[in-house]
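Practice set, problem 2.
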Amino acid sequence: MIPLNSTSFLLGLRCFSKRISNDSSRRHLSGSVKLCAGQLMRWCSRTSNTTKEHDNSSLVLKHLMAKIKSTGPISVAEYMREVLTNPVTGYYYHRDALGPQGDFITSPEISQIFGELLGIWCVSEWMAAGKPKAFHLVELGPGRGTLASDVLRVFNQLGSVLRACEISVHLVEVSPKLSETQARLLIEGENCLMHDPTAAVYKTGVTKTGLPISWYKDLQDVPNGFAFYLAHEFFDVLPIHKFQKTKQGWREILIDIDPQTPEKLRFVLAPSATFASKTLIQRDDERDHVEICAEAGVIIHRLAGRITEDGGAALIADYGHNGTKTDTFRGFRGHQLHDVLTAPGTADLTADVDFRYLRQMTRGKVSTLGPISQREFLKNMGIDVRLQVLMKNTSDPTAHRNLIEAYDMIMNPEKMGNRFKFFALLPQSRVISQEAKLEKRNSTASPIAGFSELQL
């Protein structure tokens, strides 16, 4: 058990780090793949079936043009929804876009330490909550399942701490392609897997560490209960509405067919106020260009409600801002910036997360922490301690170099270290107890892992 004062809490993190597997060869950076400046944390290598992509792009473009001709210009949110998650032609439905040969790479794919520390964060908050007899691990948008795999490995190797706790795993994933990839990584053999594509729980099985695991397409279908919700690079791909301030007031930016080039799309301003521009924009917003993700607001509101009613916490890691940025909508293809309106369906579409908006959408039901930089969060979680453990337990120079390169990628302020942010939702009682601790040194409240500066 980790004692509850700050000094011994960090010692507890050291202990956890030493008890986790010392295998540092499971995943590493390829020496031939380096980060290119200005690529917004995307790598610069690519191999793809260009003919197949061209055919898919043509189908998506024809579909979008038919829709626009039928109903008029569409919102950016509708465009993103069709391009990314259309069941027939959607970008995420039929490809694995992660990795050096895809369109982007994420921190869990770069370094195993990232996921391990998030696993420790869950254990830390479980202990701070009084060690409930059961909890759900819920991940929104699990990618290849790498983060979940690293977290579950931590749970398994801290079995002496969690032995009396009943844990279940719940993955919210809309992509059939990615859910297959996740199942191959997390489950021991297809014979353990049950499929029912029409059901709310469309896939179930048992993880390699013996935990029940289920897949869903919507957070609403995940069963209630004390839970830890992880969302890593999930909110940045949710559909956004874009608005421009004009002399006539706020006008929504829409997407239309370019009359000069009928096979191309263009941005246009709505001639009058739309329902979105009337209902989504905050009156006190002083920016002249705003991006709002209403879907993210709905999800955050649901998470806040679940945490208030059932307990638990949510940890969100994404690139974003605190209500200060304006035009961040962009595309990535082959780790290169890509015009968002060109060849739709062949590139990832993304926009920075507005954490101020997420905070507002909790409606005060929970306390929020952050956003703080990924570098600060991982430092507080003891990433340097964990790196030292892995370095100490291997004498292979190549392994050392790989560990250091991965650490530099996720921690360097010029790379992912400052670009990505961490943001948490916690029960109000959890933060109140932490504030009381600061006022009374003898309080038994434990520090909030990752968001507290822990020093020996």
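Problem 2, part (b): a different protein.
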Amino acid sequence: MVLTDKQRSDLHAGIYDYFLSRGPEFAECAEAIAKADPVSCTPKDGNSEKKSATSTLSSAPILEKKWTAVPRLQRRVLELERQMATNAKIHAHRTGGDGSGSGSANPGGGMPGRERRMLPRPPAVHTLQSHSAVVTTVALHPVYTMAASGSEDGTIKLWDHESGEYLRTLKGHTNVVTCVDFSPKGGYLASTSTDLSIKIWDIQEYKCVRTLRGHDHTISAVRFVPPIIGALYLEKSESVVPGAEAAAGGSSGSGGVDPSLAGSKFLVTASRDQTVKFWDVESGFCDHTISDHGDWVRCIAVRPAYAASAGGSARSESKKREETGGEGNSPASLALVATSGNDRTIYVYNAHEKREKVCELRGHDHVVESLSFLCSSLLPQKGGSKQSPAGAGASSSWDYLASGSRDRTVRLWSVAGGGSCLMTFRAHENWVRSVLVHPSGNHVLSCGDDRSIRVFDIKSNRCLRTIEDAHPHFVTSIAMHHTLPILVSGGVDHTVKCWQLD
């Protein structure tokens, strides 16, 4: 039996009440059920006439209320299930896992049995408008929901990409802002311009704390150099009050940048003067100059160091590195810097020690506009590296380097073993302006002068998704967060767009 005695008794009483409420036409039915189950259909006070009168006057007997409640509850359950699915997509990145929300156990709280690929989808959730000229570069803060954009109007604007709110404008450059980049810990923002200066901005105080000069022509790109494994200055970050260091330095003074708050001690810049320079952010001096390129150097990509073992303190790692003279690091564990430009050759260097060349990559037929290693935090990584998807060979995604060129192609390279081209994507119909390697290592994202944002699948070597007319005009730059589900793009239409990842 499905019903208990109590449930059956309540059901009979409800049916009896319902028949009484329907009037004389159902009187015989009420008498029949009362005769079959007199205990359930008789009032506790024994007054059947009183019960009949009360039930007749009742506009909604208990049976009708329960009957109509069932579809309402069913609709509510469906609404809640849809809401849970939506929230799982939005907040899957906040789990401790891979953010996919897949698997039978569903540890990430996502949709069971469905992997979350974290790819941009139209339409844009926010269109940020404030620049008065072409947006040339965009970057995302590694911790906060903050985006930065640089423009030909000479300003840098800060936005909240989650709410779409404008935060602040940073003014100081006197010409086109060509590139912006947040420090690994997010305490500072570096910017370059055609005014031949590099500026470092304190994000807490919204002011320039250092200006670097030394290039002889347009400065095209800037990146914070990832710290070495076991860098001692990383240990001091918790004891320093954010913004306190800014009081000691002006726009070009000394002591304006604290490496422990930046998470990096060096900047690397590329210029039309055919050089790549490394800068000490503390002293403001140029630490090293590379002159291997034979033409305009347009783009830079950096990769953090990888620690094969998660054990050991920072001091022991630093001591080991000093004892071996820096020679103990394998090529797979090095922090790398890649550069390219008008000479179509990609050079990859060790970011530290003697900054020797690791490999040269050739294959593009036109100017290389953009480079990107795997999208990740720039702080030293520990634990096992991500493996490449099936079909990409034995290469690890940690060794991936993507390049976008005016020859309308996106190339994926491996910097391991002297460097090699793994595949070439030819879907763009015009110059490729910016590329990214997805944090999962499964996709390459790109944008270009065909006004589109494209997603290429590495496993199948094909264009997986295309956002046509992402901007009304050329798309100049894209940036993706390594954990949050957000991608931002800048365009010739003077706007910055924020795209949700599904």
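Answer key, part (b): The chain is about 15% helix and 35% strand. Residues 386 and 397 are 6 Å apart (CA to CA).
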